[in-house]
Structure formats: structure tokens, C-alpha cells
Amino acid sequence: MTTNRIAFQGEPGAYSHEACRKARPGMEALPCRTFEDVIEAVRSLEADLAMLPVENSTYGRVADIHHLLPESGLHIIDEAFVRVHISLLAVPGTPLSEVREAMSHTVLLGQCRGFMRKHGIRGITGADTAGSAREIAARGDPALAALASPLAGEIYGLERLADQIEDRQNNTTRFLLMSREPNRARRGQRMLTSFVFRVRNIPAALYKAMGGFATNGVNMTKLESYMVDGVFTATQFYADIEGHPEDPNVSRALEELAYFTSMMNVLGVYPADPLRQAQLQQQG
């Protein structure tokens, strides 16, 4: 059974909602209160896909997500990079000169300091970005604006007084799309494989486990560690590598990894977002 719905965390107009529109424009976006609710919506057949943010280029990884992925029972089937463009939103007919305060999530407030200082606008912390836009629309006070996505302005009937006011123009959030069923079909030139593992309790286990990727020429784009069950003695690693498990060099590297690990679980095999390649070319 399919629902043609994609679940996301937050209010309508959140950046996760924008990611849903970008990655799956033909699907109905289903807002959920928490990340756990997003995962449960897919597991309970309320939605076909989950859209989960995993990291931001400015603020790093999203808390708790790496703990949720292995236990979710879902599989990564795609990734989506979304540029965080911030707009100043106000009730229709408000001139910029009348705005005295702007409400948003504390993270977004910190990304617009230059614009806010230039125009003498004081920041007010809201629960989240889209929720702040909804509250500003409900209050109807021209002196109070919101910092949120252009999509939030569209949904809540607010006017965009200024666009792309973020201090860093390259601020990007990476999202993972997850499904009940895995999809390892090759869908492009560049494929990624994500997995979690725990190393065996032997000297230099992590060093030895990583050696297989170096000797087989497999590029590891991410390696992060985090504690399991709140104890210091149980460390789990999350990794992203370039390539498909069926590629001979990737297969050999994963086989060598398995020898030095007590647990290894592939979370997904999926195509790289085109923006990933564009950013690599800019760096090169």
C-alpha cells in the first residue's frame, strides 16, 4: 500500500518541508511533531518516505539523528541538499522601516546578525522557524516580523520584505530520505553507502578497520562516533563512503571492515545529490 506522502519534522513551511518539495515535488508533505514521529509515520504506513535532516554546513550534525537511524528499521534511499535561504516576513503592507523585532529559532537568529544590526532589528527567540511565521501572521503587528523560509511566507500569507539575508550564502542542510524498503539500484554516476559499526575490543581496531578503505581506494566522506546507551565503553561509528557495495573495491573494503567489527549494518545505498559534486568542483 502506498500513500504518496512524505513525512517531515516541524510546522508547514519549515526547511524540512522545503526539502520535501525539492526532492519529491509530486508527494504530499506530512508534518510531524518529532523525528520519532516522522519515523513512526513511515513504519505505520501513514507515509511512504521520511525526510530527516542530518547535518548543516554551519552548525554540524543534527542532535539525536544518528541514534535514531540504526534503530528506525528504515533504509536510506536518497539524499537532498537544501540551501538555507532566509527571508524577513511581515504582515502585508508593512515597510521594512517599521519592523522593530524579528522572531525565529535561535539558530536562524544567529545567521542574520549583519542584516539585523544594519536595520536596527532585535531578535526574539521562537520555538521554530515556520511556527514563528505562523505566530507573526496571527498577531498582525507590523512592528514584528519573522525570519523563515520563503515557503513559510507563502503558506501563512506574509510579505517578503527581504530575501537571502543570511550572513553565509553557502549555508546548506543535508537531508536523508528513508523508506521501509531498501533500494540499491544504481541511479547515477556517483553512489554513496552509509553504515554504522562497532569495532572489536582489540588494540588499534579502528585503525585496522579503516585500513581497508585506504588500500582499496575507497573515499570515506564522513566518520563520526557517538556513545551507545549512555556508557563510555560502547562507541558506535557512523560512516559515509563513495561507491556501491557491489563495486569490487568497496566489497573488499567492507569485507575487511567486518573482520575488525563486532557489528556492521548498512543503512542505505543511494545516489549523491548533484550539489555535492558542484561543491567538490568549487573546492577543486
Automatic annotation (TrEMBL):
The protein's enzyme class: lyase
> Does Lyase show up as a keyword for this record?
yes
Which pathway is this protein assigned to? Amino-acid biosynthesis; L-phenylalanine biosynthesis; phenylpyruvate from prephenate: step 1/1
The answer to whether the entry has keyword Translocase is no
Domain named ACT: residues: 194-271
**Which superkingdom, per the lineage?**
Bacteria
Q: Name one GO molecular function term.
A: prephenate dehydratase activity
Q: Which NCBIfam families match?
A: PRK11899.1
PANTHER family associated with the record: PREPHENATE DEHYDRATASE P PROTEIN (PTHR21022), PREPHENATE DEHYDRATASE-RELATED (PTHR21022:SF19)
* Listed name of the protein: prephenate dehydratase
Source organism phylogeny: Bacteria, Pseudomonadati, Pseudomonadota, Alphaproteobacteria, Rhodobacterales
